[in-house]
Design a protein that fits this description.
The chain is α+β, with helices and mostly antiparallel strands and 71 residues long. Helix content is 49%, strand content 18%. GO terms for molecular function: DNA binding.
């Protein structure tokens, strides 16, 4: 099955883990603006980045975006 990416759910995952976007940026050595770009859907996370983010916030990679089945 193929999927389209919906909106980014990073803000929700950060809230669930009790962490902030600033913390995540510092943890992964990113500029905070990059994390905010993901949160605001201005940028799509590359797979390696998504894996690192999921590991940092304690979620599955698939939980970082809404997944919309496509035909």
């Amino acid at each position: 099955m193929k999927f389209e990416l919906g909106r980014c759910l990073l803000q929700e995952r950060l809230m669930e883990s009790g962490k902030s976007a600033e913390w995540l940026a510092k943890d992964l050595l990113f500029k905070p603006e990059r994390v905010y770009d993901f949160i605001e859907n201005k940028r799509v996370m590359p797979l390696k980045v998504a894996i690192s983010i999921a590991d940092s916030v304690g979620c599955d990679v698939r939980d970082l975006y809404e997944l919309i089945p496509s035909e």
